[in-house]
Write a structure and sequence with these properties.
two-stranded antiparallel sheet, 337 residues, globular
Length: 337
């Protein structure tokens, strides 16, 4: 984390070079897993494709059960189509790096062309790779025997291809590293934008005179992420990241038709098609997925949101640019990045 934090602070070009290299390794290994793994796939391992629902074991009730089961009084269960939805909600964190493309929009040369192309292109390629790798792995090894700690590497070991497991393990490190680096860069830009609007103290997001990056917010985020990674269980982190991403995507989807109605004058280099139908469908889908996460995850999320509300009402509500502009006779110019 500390090494990646330094790379994120030094600059976007250096970060892009490192990320491109790591992504190249990651995509190549994903393609390798799909092609090599096909030789070991057994049709019997893919049947039943969706295992029948079963009663949950001990410890999977109470705050451990999904919110949908708790609300509707359903018996705690695993597998079945409800299990598919819960798994989709849990693994949603795999898509959290894509919004970084939008967060770096101010540093894009031709946002009207590059942002939609970059977002849709990476989503399509990654989704195809996700499905391909998942299908091959569960075809290689029965789902009940997959090692949750290192599923792909263990699947190759199980079929006697230990050399392939080593390559996969290297790719896993490269993949995680690239995502962390992209998110660190994006968090620095998000912090800068929040500070520019006056929602947090501007000094936190001060730009480095040489590297031109918000080095303070990047440093704070680096240390915070390192502490979280060191002291929280991976499963808890995954659930928190997923519910945070789902909440953010829900709010963004709702904001699209609202802004089009309230601010039709805003310049829009690119537009979301089929609005407001597509944003509404997106918001409903994200909300429903988030309700398939556990009650425990929702309680942690609400506590985190409460902390954010304290910061907002304690500082941002009074200090933000919009509030100052409303109490001033003359509009306040935006600070220069």
């Amino acid at each position: 984390m500390l090494v990646l934090g330094v790379v994120a602070v030094v600059g976007i070009r250096e970060s892009a070079r490192v990320t491109n290299l790591l992504v190249l390794v990651k995509v190549a290994i994903c393609a390798f897993v799909i092609i090599a793994g096909l030789f070991f796939v057994k049709a019997a391992n893919l049947s039943p494709f969706i295992p029948s629902a079963e009663p949950a074991g001990a410890g999977d009730d109470g705050v451990k059960q999904p919110v949908t089961q708790a609300i509707f009084g359903l018996e705690p269960s695993v597998f079945g189509f409800a299990g598919v939805l819960t798994a989709a909600a849990v693994v949603f964190f795999a898509y959290t790096g894509f919004e970084a493309v939008a967060n770096l929009g101010e540093e894009t040369r031709k946002p009207k062309r590059d942002l939609p192309l970059g977002l849709l292109g990476t989503l399509l390629i990654s989704t195809v790779l996700y499905i391909g790798v998942s299908l091959v792995v569960v075809g290689m090894v029965k789902y009940t025997e997959i090692d949750e700690g290192a599923p792909i590497a263990s699947a190759f070991r199980a079929v006697g291809a230990g050399w392939a497991a080593v390559l996969v393990s290297i790719a896993a490190v490269a993949g995680l590293t690239s995502v962390i680096l992209v998110d660190l860069v994006a968090m620095g830009r998000i912090g800068f934008a929040i500070a520019r609007d006056g929602l947090i103290p501007p000094a936190i997001a001060k730009v480095h005179p040489r590297w031109g990056t918000p080095y303070r917010i990047a440093g704070i985020m680096t240390v915070a992420v390192a502490l979280l990674a060191g002291f929280l269980p991976l499963s808890a982190l995954a659930d928190l990241v997923s519910i945070g991403a789902l909440c953010a995507f829900t709010l963004v989807a709702i904001a699209v038709p609202i802004l089009r109605r309230r601010r039709p004058d805003l310049e829009r280099p690119f537009k979301v098609p089929f609005s407001p139908v597509l944003p509404i469908v997106t918001a409903v889908a994200c909300l429903y997925l988030s309700l398939n996460l556990s009650v425990e995850t929702w309680l942690r999320f609400l506590a985190w949101m409460l902390l954010g509300a304290v910061i907002y009402f304690g500082y941002g509500h009074r200090k933000n640019r919009l509030a100052r502009r409303e109490h001033s006779d003359t509009p306040e110019p935006a600070p220069t990045p």
